[in-house]
Amino acid sequence: IKFELFPSFIHGERKVFILYPDYYDGIDETEFITGLRIYNRSKFKTLNHRDYLGSLMSLGIDRNKTGDIYVYEDYADIVLHTDISDYIIYNIEKIGHNKIEAERIKVNDVAFKEQEHVALNITSSSMRIDSIVKHITNKSRETAADMVKAGNVKINWQAEERTAAEVKENDMISISRYGRYKVSGLSGMTKSGKYRIEIKHYT
User: Fewer Cβ atoms within 10 A, N terminus or C terminus of the chain?
Assistant: First the structure.
């Protein structure tokens, strides 16, 4: 058995996991995912990530059918399952009071834009998830551990209830009511033996 993650570009956060027999030469990602570009034709009101996502949800689209959404001044590019692209194009006419136009584009033509974020620098005695959560939330180690045990913390979109689970560079951390974070870099150790960790808090 082989597997692939689509879209194949490394900066995509939400991906489709495909399993296929090992006698296949490979999988064409366009069979599963495509790009959608939605133009905002209003000159008076800009649209944000929540506006675009909300418009898809209002059509009854399962969130698991849509991938990353990259928002620009007058349009947004969305990665989604190929089988729902026509439905969206034919049914979405407005977002709020804004008139829009939608067209399918190639996944490779999707314009990647990193989400806005705030850079944080923390020092931690370990790379354990409870320690990282403690520093991100400014809570006690005990409270952070309780948050993990309660299932309020995810690592790479998977719930993690083990307080001793290790976090690695480039891991995504989601904390209920606090938001999403990425371990964007490790910059050595302090003289006292603590990790210097660079964190991106996506806003």
Answer: N
